[in-house]
């Protein structure tokens, strides 16, 4: 007898397949977009934010950075001047990208309802999340390394510095991987550089050519003016919080009740136990000025010159920092007294914690001694009875229970 074969009905499988197809169509309908993105070809584009003053004639060039002399990219526009390219990177912990939409109106198509020109949208995805911003930079910074190059170390011999033409200073700058020669062909750019050099130099007209010689007093005054302008209205929030608010913040001292429990050797401490008064506005302004000055020096000036200008600023007569210095000295005394008061207030707590540790150790030692004495007083018979296996045996009290 031939074996019978059983076949499974395909009704359920057909229904399941139909449901899956409907679900896929629904997902496709939800994920459809009116924008069609084409595959990118070639290197990925970079996103720049440029000032409105930058014209199409502007170029991205390589110039020696004023701080360290290594080549860096800048934007130079004959009409707008020089711009530094700052790169803002996204955090690596959260991958991101840019979706850039281009919008252009088509002149040959009209909307059937409104009659307006049809807007043609184009979109592009940039996988690189970096953002490049162009910020203005004074071209004077590019010439400062050449102006101080070869200057005498002795300040008394400053008058012996030679008067040189702008071309001689240009030749002092490193020319490897630099486009300085090309941008100097632009008349407006060359005039701008020479005009900025004149603000920090002594100049002499020799025929149809201007000769320059660095004047350190003018250079210091120019940097102070830049720092003052930078500090107007407050510094960026991160700098304002770290270098101004925290630097001028007085310590939070003990209250009067807490201070009364401590033995304070100095009678002046009673005046210290209070919250600090508001910082004078003039002190805040001077602190902002010093912070901005240090930032400019550490970002755009060669290290030896930056240190020299910072020393000259302390003894300069262009800005009086005596109010700031007095406040910082008073603040240092307050912090020292606050540290002393804090240490005195912590003495009772330290002693109580030490007493608790000593009591715990004494209790542990007492228990060990009691156990040792109890074991020593036991007889041999008692010790042998403890070794007997009493599992399954009834206790003696079991036989004296009420029935």
Automatic annotation (TrEMBL):
Gene3D superfamilies: 1.10.20.120, 2.20.25.530
Location of region: Disordered: 1-21, 343-390
Role according to the record: Non catalytic subunit of RNase H2, an endonuclease that specifically degrades the RNA of RNA:DNA hybrids. Participates in DNA replication, possibly by mediating the removal of lagging-strand Okazaki fragment RNA primers during DNA replication. Mediates the excision of single ribonucleotides from DNA:RNA duplexes.
Domain named Ribonuclease H2 subunit B wHTH: residues: 141-310
Pfam families from the UniProt entry: RNase_H2-Ydr279 (PF09468), Ydr279_N (PF17745)
Lineage: Eukaryota, Fungi, Dikarya, Ascomycota, Pezizomycotina
Subcellular locations according to the entry: Nucleus
Coiled coil: none
An individual GO BP term: RNA catabolic process
UniProt keyword annotations, A-Z: Nucleus
Domain Rnh202 triple barrel stretches: 49-138
Organism: Ophiocordyceps camponoti-floridani
CDD domains in the record: RNase_H2-B (cd09270)
UniProt feature, compositional bias: Basic and acidic residues: 361-387
Identification of the protein by name: Ribonuclease H2 subunit B
Domain of life: Eukaryota
GO cellular component: nucleoplasm; ribonuclease H2 complex
